[in-house]
Amino acid sequence: MIRQASSYLDVENYTGDIAILGGSFNPIHVGHIRMAESFYKQFGIDIVLMPNKTTYYKENRAFVSDEDRLNMLSLVAEHYPYMYFSDLEIVRGGVTHTIDTIRELKKANISRDIYFIIGGDSLEWIDKWVDAEELINAVHFVSAIRGDTDLDRTKDIIDRLNTEYPKSRISILDMENTPVSSSEIRNRIAHGLDISELVPDYISDYIQKNSLFKGEM
């Protein structure tokens, strides 16, 4: 059913330039969506929402089902002609390393441009990720930031990475700060509080209809 959705993209066989917005999406929220909107406005490249199965630093975290997370991504993507979703990392299973995903995407077209959208806090650590040099040389990173202080720090990080990795391509995403997190949403739901400003109404409806995150703290 999930792969039959109109917004599903078979990224392993798609050969065009592509942007990846990854995460647990537990659940997806307005911060994720505004990041994707801002990216498309700035770069004009289609975006794939790609949930991870697990990561080495979140492997003990309780997720709602993979199907529910994918269903919510499908609902979001259906509202934007330039957004899609993929189950690539979920189907692969196990611990998620970004370089594994990039290698798979490169198999379809070695010369394609792959953009990877991340938060400014993640950018600081990408040279510590698995097979960092290969990853940094293969991907155009686009970093969202928060405020002027974060902008200055991000520019310093980019300067350092460009020096250490001359083939690196790193851009700053021009977007309005949206202070919201999935953990905040789960906490609000667990306490019976309103989440209408944190997720689209169709995501709130899905969460309520399927009784997701009840009892989560």
Spell out the key features of this protein:
217 residues; alpha/beta; six-stranded parallel sheet; globular
Task: Give the gist of this structure.
This protein has 217 residues and is α/β, with parallel strands linked by helices. The chain is built from 9 helices and 6 strands, in the order E-H-E-H-E-H-H-E-H-H-E-H-E-H-H.
Describe the structure.
- The two termini are 31 Å apart.
- Helices cover 41% and strands 14% of the residues.
- A 6-stranded parallel beta sheet has the order 3-2-1-4-5-6, sandwiched between helices.
- It is an alpha/beta fold.
- Strand 1, helix 1 and strand 2 form a beta-alpha-beta unit.
Strands, count: 6
The share of residues in extended strands comes to: 5-15%
What is the average of the pLDDT values? 91
First-last Cα distance: 31 Å
The count of helical stretches stands at 9
Order of helices and strands: EHEHEHHEHHEHEHH
Rg is: 17 Å
Q: How would you describe the oligomerization state of the chains in this entry?
A: single chain
By secondary-structure content and strand pairing, the structural class works out as alpha/beta
Principal-axes geometry comes out as globular
Helix content: 40-55%
Low-confidence stretches: none
Largest sheet: 6 strands, parallel
Query: Strand order of the main beta sheet, please?
Result: 3-2-1-4-5-6
